[in-house]
Design a protein that fits this description.
Keywords: Cytoplasm. This protein is mainly alpha-helical and 721 residues long. Among the domains are: 1-76 and 89-113, Up-down Bundle (Four Helix Bundle (Hemerythrin (Met), subunit A)); 124-231, Four Helix Bundle (Hemerythrin (Met), subunit A) (Up-down Bundle); 246-359, Nucleotidyltransferases  domain 2 (Four Helix Bundle (Hemerythrin (Met), subunit A), Up-down Bundle); 509-669, Alpha-catenin/vinculin-like (Four Helix Bundle (Hemerythrin (Met), subunit A)), CATH 1.20.120. It has 22 helices and no strands. Mean pLDDT is 82; it is low at 78-83, 485-507, 672-706 and 711-721.
Length: 721
């Protein structure tokens, strides 16, 4: 809105509509600033160190908002008595100054508010740690009950604060790490309860003490990691060096190889050779693994050998092309680039197949949880020999699952999923020995109800992680097959060798500054509509609903088209825009199909829903026809651009009406029946983080708060003896 004010054209003739629009924008800015500083100032009341700084920033922001409102109070300009009134038309620099002051003060408020939130999380963590120290040292049940009740309340508070922070994080990698740490805290809170009770009941049992110490240690590590993420720091100033996966290595290698088309001199042959060597070193994780099939191992070795040969050929042609840039040599270089990239794609496909087939087999084999069941039975029987036998089998199972996680990390395809694989590996590594110590304790005290309950809790954590792995495996396969990814990439732009064969014959055209100015208003309307659509999709609890996903996709594409009107973004030429409009129209048609499917489920407003769906199909067809129509000459091309943006705007306007209607119908028809799911539990949320990059973030509930609160209120279950 501020950009609109500053960029408005000073026309000698001002219509009433223009004057009213300017005044509305000014008032809207002032009201928004007022709401913003009210929230910002309120947040500082509990933090005396930053209260004064925050107050100054809020006053500055409010003053700037009021100045903008005064300068845009132009509705009465037609009256003679208002001639002396200073407005945006008489003092353009005043608006610019006020806008700068506003942006500066708003930034200060945001930074201060962020510091307050970080301090709240650190304070909450410190309270949890202090109470944990007390819990670790208690020697009586009565004392334990009192302290654990306090600990439970503190963990609930910490869960709410970190859940909100997780929603606010923009970095998908950090978000995944935060979700993993909070998952550990959720599970360990329950483990800490039963492990501590077991230790209090059997104070001289070494395996019970080991079991309890392991839980406390893991919780402290998770709490520390949360603070590292929140403060963006690591102990001793060390940098986090995550191991490079085969997928990310291949992606970077291919980017460099394909970059040779544009520039023959931007990197050395040694760089490319080193990158390939690193990738092939990582494939040894597959070829050296005892769990990789002979067939997969042979294929990976063959493709590794072929990749070296293709790179040698590429380097040979590349060096010749640097010395002599003939047409034949450039064609040979193109062939060498394509062959090298194809070989790397084949290698990627092979390691993906090796990892996912191993994971599918292992998860299927271990679904019966026979080893865990046997440990529970032999533990209750007090059969130490049988427990020792089954703990060996569990250790073997743990090694298999850890290896599976390591191989899956290489093919996960996105950083958030890589982090989820690393978290799963850590969970199996830690939970395996904890199950063993809990089983040994039960075998030593077979009549102990608390020792039996403790073993159950650790076995449930193992089973839960195995269940998570099935979900993770589906996500990894989705990424590989292009159904999901680290970002929703809807910019299916023309690439060499793809889409229409005649695209190369079309001369790419950019809008000049005059054309951009003409289309700016339409672009801004499109921008506002994308905000409205994002706001509507954010209201849906089930973010995986087909209607929501199509809506988010269309919003993302419309936003790219808006950026094009400003000469920004990934759509560089008019041909890019037309192609994007076609994809947008296709997405709209898919949405219409989803609406037809919804109409079969609803009773109220069914005719209205079908009518709107038909209207959407018609508008999308019109847009496709416009986007595909040929346009010769500058004037015709601009007319086509204008028509595409206008028709996209019309579709988005309809979408703004459709989303709340569908949401209402779903709530009405399937209330409580799972159509609008509750916010996903923790374990699903940390895997789904990979999929929502540009789209508005979902709220996540604080981890296991209900179950934790139940534990806190039901502490009377502790045995009194």
């Amino acid at each position: 809105q501020i950009t609109t004010l500053i960029n408005h054209k000073d026309k000698p003739k001002r219509s009433d509509k223009t004057l009213q629009a300017i005044q509305r924008v000014g008032q809207a800015v002032n009201l928004a600033v007022g709401r913003f500083v009210t929230v910002g100032g309120g947040g500082a009341n509990e933090n005396h160190e930053l209260k004064e700084e925050m107050s100054v920033a809020c006053v500055e922001a409010r003053r700037a908002g009021e100045t903008i409102a005064q300068l845009t109070d132009v509705a009465s300009l037609d009256h003679p008595e208002s001639d002396s009134h200073i407005t945006i038309f008489t003092d353009k620099t005043g608006v610019v100054k006020a806008a700068r002051l506003l942006l500066s003060s708003v930034t200060k408020v945001l930074v201060l508010a962020d510091r307050i939130v970080i301090k709240q999380i650190i304070t909450s963590r410190n309270k949890v740690l202090a109470t944990m120290d007390q819990l670790e040292k208690v020697s009586s049940f009565q004392e334990f009950v009192q302290i654990f009740s306090q600990f439970g309340n503190e963990m609930v508070e910490f869960a709410h604060l970190t859940g909100d922070r997780q929603n606010d994080l923009k970095d998908e990698k950090k978000k995944a790490r935060m979700a993993a740490s909070r998952a550990v805290l959720e599970k360990c809170t329950m483990m800490l309860l039963t492990a501590s009770k077991t230790c209090l009941r059997h104070p001289d049992c070494e395996s019970a003490r080991i079991n309890k110490d392991g839980v406390f240690h893991r919780m402290r590590l998770a709490l520390e990691q949360v603070i590292e993420i929140v403060t963006d720091s690591r102990p001793n100033g060390e940098n986090e060096m995550a191991p490079i996966s085969i997928y990310s290595g291949i992606k970077e290698f291919k980017n460099k190889v394909e970059g040779l088309r544009e520039n023959l001199y931007f990197l050395s042959k040694e760089n490319l050779s080193t990158m390939l060597e690193v990738i092939l070193e990582h494939t040894e994780d597959f070829t050296d693994s005892a769990y990789t099939s002979h067939e997969h191992r042979e294929h990976i070795l063959e493709l590794s050998k072929q990749a070296k040969m293709e790179l040698e050929q590429l380097v040979s042609v590349w060096m010749q092309a640097q010395n002599q840039k003939t047409k034949d040599l450039m064609e040979d270089l193109e062939v060498a680039i394509l062959k090298t990239c194809q070989c790397m794609n084949d290698l990627k496909r092979e390691v993906h197949s090796a990892a996912t087939s191993l994971a599918a087999d292992l998860l299927k084999y271990h679904t019966d949880h026979m080893v865990l069941k046997a440990l529970k039975i032999t533990g209750v029987e007090g059969n130490l020999e049988a427990v020792a036998e089954y703990t060996c089998k569990l250790s073997e199972q743990k090694e298999q699952l850890v290896e599976m996680c390591r191989l899956l990390r290489h093919v996960s395809g996105t950083e958030p999923l890589e982090i989820t694989c690393i978290h799963a590996e850590d969970t199996f590594q830690v939970t395996g020995p904890q199950i063993i110590s809990a089983a040994e304790t039960l075998a030593l005290h077979p009549s102990s109800k608390i020792a039996k309950e403790n073993l159950e809790v650790f076995c449930e954590a193992w089973e839960s992680q195995l269940s998570d792995m099935s979900l993770l495996l589906r996500e990894i396969n989705d990424v590989f097959e292009g159904r999901r990814g680290e970002k929703r990439v809807y910019l299916s732009l023309p690439r060499p060798g793809k889409h229409n064969a005649n695209l190369k014959a079309l001369k790419p055209v950019k809008l000049d500054s005059e054309e951009q100015a003409k289309i700016a208003k339409l672009g801004l309307e499109l921008h506002l509509l994308t905000s409205d659509v994002d706001s509507e999709t954010e209201k849906w609890e089930d973010q995986d609903n087909e209607i929501v996903q199509h809506g988010q996709g269309m919003s993302s594409m419309a936003y790219s088209m808006y950026l094009f009107t400003r000469g920004e973004g990934l759509l560089k030429t008019t041909q890019d825009l037309f192609h994007q409009a076609e994809i947008f129209a296709t997405e709209g048609t898919k949405l219409a199909s989803a609406l037809h499917a919804l109409s079969d489920q609803v009773h109220d407003d069914k005719p209205l829903l079908l009518l709107e769906a038909e209207k959407l199909i018609s508008m999308c067809k019109q847009l496709q026809i416009t986007a595909k129509a040929s346009a010769q000459g500058k004037s015709a091309t601009f007319t086509k651009v204008d028509a595409c943006i206008l028709k996209t705007r019309n579709v988005m306007t309809l979408l703004c009406q459709l989303l709340p209607l569908c949401c209402k119908l779903l709530r009405k028809t399937k209330a409580g029946n799972g159509c609008l799911k509750p916010a996903p539990p923790w374990k699903e949320d940390r895997i789904r983080t990979a999929t929502n990059a540009r789209t508005p973030e979902r709220r996540v509930d604080a981890f296991g708060i209900k179950s934790l609160e139940n534990h806190v209120t039901n502490m009377t279950f502790l045995e009194s003896k």
